[in-house]
Specification:
It is built from 14 helices and 33 strands. With 700 residues, the protein is α+β, with helices and mostly antiparallel strands.
Length: 700
């Protein structure tokens, strides 16, 4: 009898297992947003609540698992479609890494940052670093990058003059006002168009109306080049971008082109009155920007400086100048001697042989390992510009991975840099320029986030255009290849902790690469070979509109490169640094940007909400942005032909029976805000999209 009862019991269990619904994997979800982690940025020794979503009545148990511990989760709430499991965990001071284990009958699966899996994948574990947070204002912020010389000339009295500089075999040249729209020369370090910070100030109404929340400036400190990535004086705003109140000095003659003998170099950027006036003007400018509710990010070039730098003074322009010590090139007794790595061959001085970044003698590499004074000086500068009276809101760090001479030293410096900046301004953002996987730099004690090449610009460019970001290569086989796009995005997005991902700088273009609109014409090459006109030939505005819609709905801070919104074209640097096309703007494209920025800013789910891929296919990208209050579904048809899709949207957190309304649709010809209604039946909606179009749907 006992044996028979056990057999009957086993039959009942087997029958019940057969009756259990299949595990609905698309409903499984958790991440680091506030809906699934409270608080989302916990401090040391805090108790944090972790949550996990499943389909209603679909699983038996959910566990939070680390390498050594398992925490059972309890069913804390539910609705008609989903169950939500929760557990409270008290953190310590060390990073807490975890994944989820889901049990449904005999089926066991796991869930990590990449998604559903059978394996334990250590590279994709969720991670909490107690005490790490990023500024709330930066999460999902609309940023706008400006190369000041190319934006707008608001003060003609501070323009660089013809023959004012001789630098890298080039005499400075002021581009005439009537040639503002002329493309830059192929080698254009000394070509100045006259844009300045006063010009930005005069266009603040335009930026505010567009919806910009943060201005990111390319370098604005004293420098003899138009791009200013070869800084001459870290303590002062360049008077050519700021104010010139005293104009003394002689210009170089045609015969005086040896930059080692530039003693007649115009003293406009060494004059103390001009330097003070420029700093004062900038402080007032930042106050005006802050009064409008906007922020300022500066470009920090701390791996190297310029040979003109007052610490080096290879051109000997600071000798005998008020307020400056002798440079390291001028004297072996210079207080800046240890700031650079000179080769100790012979006893002569000046010393021509010093380390340059990538071997460039115009870019002396800073010798942090050999100089505690330099180390402290740069930390002083880092604090200075985020403190009173300037109060800037953060740093973008140029070639940040190259600083120093070893990986270990690099990490040490950025940890100290973070401490200095956050002590001076706890709400400042620290954003590194970085190519490749950023995981080791985003561990919570160095950078807040990065310029997002790997998890935005590069995969999206390949998917939509098949072009490499410099326009150096065209790969038609990669256009619309969803497996490559989704695989790259899942992999690299998992390298970010959520606070870092939400403020990553998501750009379509910038000063180092071709303009995105130019990439849509599939012309591989550069201006010097193809000609300037080729950059705007055959461009595809339908694809550009798709890209902007993705940019405004993807996790991170959508960052416009000045002029992209106006239809500016250009091959890679320096052609991508053309002037803003005032009077020749593409207003339809500007209006589209304005509407998409409005949608982004009005809906918290786009700033800090969750992200989930939906059932995409080649040429058709589908994903969701959502929180518990708002759910959005985005579809992008990159095909030339019309596409229809039966799309399961339950992963977006919507009920099985839901109504979705269209907020905006872009097409080859333009865009429309005309609403359209879609009805979900058992979580499925039917959507038809024209070729080269994109749509945002909102649950109502």
């Amino acid at each position: 009898m006992k044996y028979q009862s056990m057999r009957e019991s086993n039959k009942v269990q087997q029958y019940m297992m057969q009756m259990r619904p299949v595990l609905r994997k698309h409903a499984l979800f958790s991440d680091g947003t506030k809906d699934y982690r409270t608080p989302p940025e916990p401090k040391e020794n805090d108790t944090v609540t972790i949550r996990f979503r499943t389909a209603r009545n679909n699983v038996d148990n959910v566990w939070v698992c680390t390498g050594t511990e398992r925490y059972g989760m309890h069913l804390s709430e539910w609705d008609e479609t989903f169950d939500y499991y929760a557990v409270e965990i008290t953190l310590g001071t060390r990073p807490f890494r975890y994944y989820f284990e889901i049990i449904s009958g005999h089926l066991i699966c796991r869930y990590d940052r990449f998604g559903v899996t059978q394996d334990i994948r250590n590279n994709y574990l969720f991670q909490i670093v107690p005490g790490f947070s990023t500024p709330d204002w930066a999460k999902g912020a609309i940023m706008y990058q400006i190369m000041v010389d190319r934006f707008y000339n608001g003060d003609k009295t501070n323009d660089v003059l013809d023959r004012e500089y001789f630098y890298i075999r080039t005499l400075s040249e002021r581009v005439p006002e009537e040639e503002w729209g002329k493309p830059p020369k192929d080698f254009s370090v000394g070509e100045f168009y006259g844009g300045d910070i006063e010009g930005v100030r005069q266009k603040l109404d335009y930026l505010s109306d567009l919806g910009v929340e943060v201005i990111y400036f390319n370098p604005i400190f004293v420098s003899p080049s138009n791009h200013k990535y070869d800084i001459q004086d870290y303590d002062h705003i360049d008077p050519h971008l700021g104010k010139i109140v005293e104009d003394k000095g002689e210009l170089l003659t045609e015969g005086e082109r040896d930059n080692r003998k530039a003693t007649r170099y115009s003293c406009r950027v060494t004059n103390q009155r001009n330097l003070k006036a420029s700093n004062d003007f900038f402080a007032d400018f930042v106050k005006e920007v802050h009064a409008r509710g906007m922020k300022i990010i500066l470009d920090g070039v701390f791996n190297h400086c310029g040979s003109f730098n007052c610490w080096m003074d290879r051109e000997r322009i600071y000798e005998d100048k008020e307020g400056f010590e002798l440079g390291a090139f001028v004297s072996k007794e210079s207080p800046y001697r240890s700031y650079f790595n000179f080769k100790e061959e012979g006893s002569g001085w000046p010393r021509e042989n010093y380390e340059g970044w990538w071997g460039h003698d115009t870019l002396p590499k800073l010798n942090y390992e050999g100089s505690k004074a330099l180390y402290q000086d740069i930390l002083r500068i880092a604090k200075k510009w985020v403190s009173e009276p300037y109060c800037c809101d953060g740093w973008r760090l140029d070639v940040a991975e190259d600083l120093g001479h070893s990986r270990e030293f690099n990490h040490k410096f950025w940890r100290d840099f973070r401490g200095a900046v956050k002590e001076a301004n706890p709400d400042a953002v620290i954003l590194g320029e970085h190519y490749g996987d950023p995981r080791e730099w985003l561990s919570g004690d160095e950078w807040d986030t990065i310029m997002n090449y790997v998890a935005f610009m590069e995969p999206l460019t390949w998917f939509l255009t098949g072009m490499e970001k410099h326009s150096d290569e065209f790969r038609p086989d990669l256009i619309g290849k969803i497996s490559d796009f989704e695989g790259a995005m899942r992999h690299y997005m998992s390298s970010f902790m959520t606070p870092s991902l939400l403020c990553s700088m998501n750009q379509l273009s910038n000063h180092d690469h071709s303009r995105f609109l130019t990439r849509t014409n599939h012309k591989a090459g550069r201006k010097e070979y193809l000609g300037a006109a080729a950059a705007s030939e055959g461009v595809d505005f339908g694809i550009m509109r798709e890209a902007v819609l993705v940019q405004m709905t993807w996790p991170g801070a959508p960052t416009l490169y000045y002029g992209d919104e106006a239809g500016l074209c250009g091959f890679t640097d320096p052609d991508s640094r053309r002037t803003y096309p005032w009077g020749r703007e593409n207003w339809e494209l500007i209006d589209l940007h304005r509407e998409l920025i409005r949608i982004h800013r009005e809906n918290e789910a786009f700033r800090t909400g969750s992200f989930q891929f939906l059932d995409s296919e080649d040429q058709l990208l589908c994903y969701a942005r959502f929180n518990r209050e708002q759910q959005f579904v985005i579809l992008v048809n990159n095909d030339e032909a019309e596409r229809s899709k039966e799309l399961n949207i339950l992963a977006a957190g919507v009920p099985e029976e839901a109504v979705m309304s269209r907020l905006i649709v872009t097409t080859e010809k333009g865009y429309s805000l005309m609403p359209e209604t879609y009805y979900a039946d058992k979580g499925i909606i039917h959507v038809t999209l024209q070729g080269k179009s994109a749509v945002i749907l909102e649950r109502v």
